[in-house]
Amino acid sequence: MQWRRHVTGLAFSLVFVVSYFTNKFVLSVLNFTYPTLFQGWQTFIGAILLLVSGKLGWVEINRITRSAALSWLPGSLLFVGNIYAGSRALSRLDIPFFFTLQNCSHPFSYVIFKVMRREKTQWLKFISLCLMLLSAINLPFYDPQVDHSGYLWAVCHLACVGAYRVFQVHHKSVNLSDLEQQCINYLFSVLLLAVAAHPTGDLTGALEFPSLQSHTFHCGCCASALLGFLLRLATVKLKSGLSFEHFGVWIFLSKVTAMLLSPFIFSVNSNASSLLCVVVSHVGEALLIYSERDTHV
Predict the structure, then answer these.
(1) Are 85 and 160 in contact (CB under 8 A)?
(2) Residue in 82, 11, 49, 83 with CA at minimum distance from that of residue 238
(3) Longest C-alpha distance within the chain, in Å?
(4) Is the dihedral of CA 255, 256, 258, 259 positive or negative?
(5) Cα separation of 220 and 227, whole Å?
(6) What is the DSSP string of 89-110?
(7) CA–CA separation, 160 vs 154, rounded Å?
(8) DSSP of 247-278, one letter per residue?
């Protein structure tokens, strides 16, 4: 029924906003800038909850063959790059700026799709992609407190997001559902991030972290892990119950909601020019959703 779709969409938006706000709080306010441990903890809890949910029959996860898991490993590597670079960028950038740069993953995906498919492009879609690209390029020049490291990590993040989107579309295996793909992502992430924790210095730094025994820190980390898992489930549920166009609309509305509420929760340093970049980028995203109403790319 239509009302159930709206309830699912609203639940997704709520989890989306609270999840990003919780991550931003831990990474920026508490200043826990150790992404191998932070993301390793999130993916570890996510893997446990997903496997337990599968065992209890709450979600459908079939037995994953070795060949299917191996064929999905490039996607898992991109997933790790996505969450690692995303954490680095989110810890340094305000949420509206983070989403503006993240939008540039669409032009990145488009270039790859264009090379692979060589199909004719709709003029409206081309305009929307140009708006997102130009906004992301100009934003660092107008950001009143530009953090070059944050922007560099954001570029890595958007590249991984865009490449992961292409890999999902063109992955040859039909044996893996979205949840099974996510299960492989979680398990691979836990292994890789655990191995990387010591060489990156995150393990040593975390042991000396001033708020390590803080009740607020523990609650924030636990909430971030649980919300991350719920966001994955909500994404799969929303994606399976809606058309591609309506799924994109809920993503867009959730991001806009997070950006509008973020100044009330966090300190946002902006000016008219940087805000114009944010607005133009998301106008471009809205046009992209409209232009893709009859396609799935």
Answers:
(1) yes
(2) 11
(3) 57
(4) positive
(5) 10
(6) HHHHS-HHHHHHHHTTHHHHHH
(7) 10
(8) HHHHHHHHHHHHHHHHHHHS-----HHHHHHH
Residue position matching structure tokens 């070059």:
148
Separation of CA 252 from chain center:
13
The pTM for the full model equals: 0.92
Q: 278 with 135: CB under 8 angstroms?
A: yes
Q: Which residue has the tokens 């706000």?
A: 21
pLDDT in tens, the chain (297 residues): 455 667 888 999 999 999 999 999 999 888 887 888 889 889 999 999 999 998 888 888 888 888 888 889 999 999 999 999 999 999 999 999 999 999 999 999 998 888 877 767 788 999 999 999 999 999 999 998 888 999 999 999 999 999 999 998 887 655 788 899 999 999 999 999 888 877 776 666 666 676 666 788 788 889 999 999 999 999 988 888 777 778 889 999 999 999 999 999 998 888 999 999 999 999 999 999 988 775 544
Q: Write out 208-244 in H/E/C secondary structure.
A: CCCCCCCHHHHHHHHHHHHHHHHHHHHHHHHHHHCCH
Q: What share of the chain is helix, strand, coil (3-state, %, to 5)?
A: 80, 0, 20
| Amino acid in position 65 | T
Dihedral sign of CA atoms 50, 55, 57, 63 in order? positive
Q: Are 280 and 131 in contact (CB under 8 A)?
A: yes
Amino acid residing at 22: T
First to last CA, the chain: 26
Q: How far is 95 from 255, CA to CA, in rounded Å?
A: 9
